[in-house]
Amino acid sequence: MSIQLGRKPAYSVTGQRPAAAIGTLIGPYSIQWRRYSKFALGAALIAIGVGTTYQQVFVRVSREAVINARVATIRAPMDGIVTTASVFPGQAVQAGAPIGDIEDPTADDERVFQLQQELHAAERENTVLALRLADLQRSRAEADARAEAYRIGRVQQAQLRVEEAKAKLSAAMARQSDAIAAETRGAALNARGYMANSAYEGALHAREVAQQEVIAARRRLDALNVEMEAARSGTYLGDNYNDVPSSFQRSRELSVRIDETEATLQQLVRKQDMLVADIVAEQKRLAARSRAPLASALDGNLWTVQVATGEYVRKGQELFTVLDCSTVVVTASVFERDYNELRIGYPVTFRISGSSREYSGTISKLGLTSTERSFAIAPEERRHQVAVQLPDLQHSDSDRCAVGRTGEVVFEQHGGRFGARLVESLRHLIGSS
Hints:
The protein is α+β, with helices and mostly antiparallel strands.
């Protein structure tokens, strides 16, 4: 170095030994490397500044982008205490599959209690009427037995009277025969003068009386026959008494009361059936009001669990949110100058941070303020937000439902993709990303 600068070696001038001369040579080399390091650092800073300026001015990329999806909220359908299974965020759920339930211990069951009381009262009344009906049937059986015994007795009595009347008719007919024979003999004797006229007249009178007695006996026999036939059919003929006995009348009264009691029992049975049906329906309504299952309306993953087992919740309170992986989109915030030039349908590329995975898609919505509550990650209102549909992302095994994974959206209009790749390569080269 000294020779190149037109100088003599240090040890030849100063008379130093070779080791000392080598130490003297290291000093200029250190100064040179420090200058080179400063120059390299300055160049790197300038490159970063130039790259950032180029990206801000020429390349259209999002400020921040995140994989997002819509969520469905499961709310409490009623007031009550929550009982849930072992659930945790990220757990897969199926549509209609229960993940818990709500039970209201203070549900109003007054209507069910009232119907049950009416049913118990109807059952008690039914029991009383059944016992009364059994008593009436037993009393009617006894009255029927007495009436049947009376009828049999009256028939037997009528038969005896008929036999008596037949005997009297036979006696009357015998007397009539004697009277006729006496009148015949008296007529012959009177004609010959052997019998006085008065005696003959007496014989004639006796014959007439005997004939009338036979007629009376026949009529009496006919009347008794009629009475006997009536007694056999249950109707009793005679003077100074009713056509039926008191036992028959009692049996008929009991039959009427039995019919009325049976009609009342049938009404009670129908009333009991109606009350049972009302109780079942009211119990179903009470069960619907006092207990309700909690289930997701769609297949997805639990995003948030906002309630614990045993917690009392109010109707309409948010309990769970379910992530709908079929609605995965990318939401991104962009600069105002870029936002004003974007249009729905513009082609974009979404690049996952820290990886080389890219997905192509298009802008599907500009501005997300009105729909922020439907997304798992709510966009910021103060930022200009866009939504990007990425069909290939739906079929990706690693990023399909990776909600919250970040990256950047490159807007490919006006060569943005090439510029973004250039800036990204520069960043990797200088180690800033």
